[in-house]
Write a structure and sequence with these properties.
Blueprint (H helix, E strand, L loop, with lengths): L7 E3 L5 E4 L4 E5 L5 E3 L3 E2 L1 E2 L4 E2 L5 E7 L2 E6 L27
Antiparallel strand pairs: 1-2, 2-3, 3-4, 5-8, 6-7, 8-9
Length: 97
């Protein structure tokens, strides 16, 4: 069984994980090692150059196709509560919201 550090949250694409603390996207390799992905600028294939809007994001491989996912897509992800928090309030411990 593979246990992730507390800061990692899975995203909707399998094999990719968002690090909430570092605000960076990681991929899991076959050996179980997490590798950070590089933040890139969106490529506009119609004009064969980088897009002028300067959207920062990650290039992912989903089912063999390259997909660009903007960084803003992952910024709303948070650590799951209360399993990944260091301190839990005693009044709410054991209750799920």
């Amino acid at each position: 069984m593979i246990v992730f550090p507390k800061a990692f949250v899975k995203i909707h694409h399998p094999g990719y994980f968002w690090n909430v603390d570092e605000q960076a996207l990681y991929t899991m390799k076959v050996t179980g090692v997490l590798r950070p992905l590089k933040l890139t600028t969106q490529w506009d294939s119609r004009i064969n150059r980088y897009a002028t809007n300067g959207v920062q994001g990650y290039r992912l491989s989903v089912s063999g196709e390259k997909v660009f996912s903007p960084k803003s897509m992952f910024m709303h992800l948070k650590k799951p509560w209360p399993w990944h928090t260091e301190t839990v309030d005693q009044t709410t411990q054991g209750t799920l919201l």
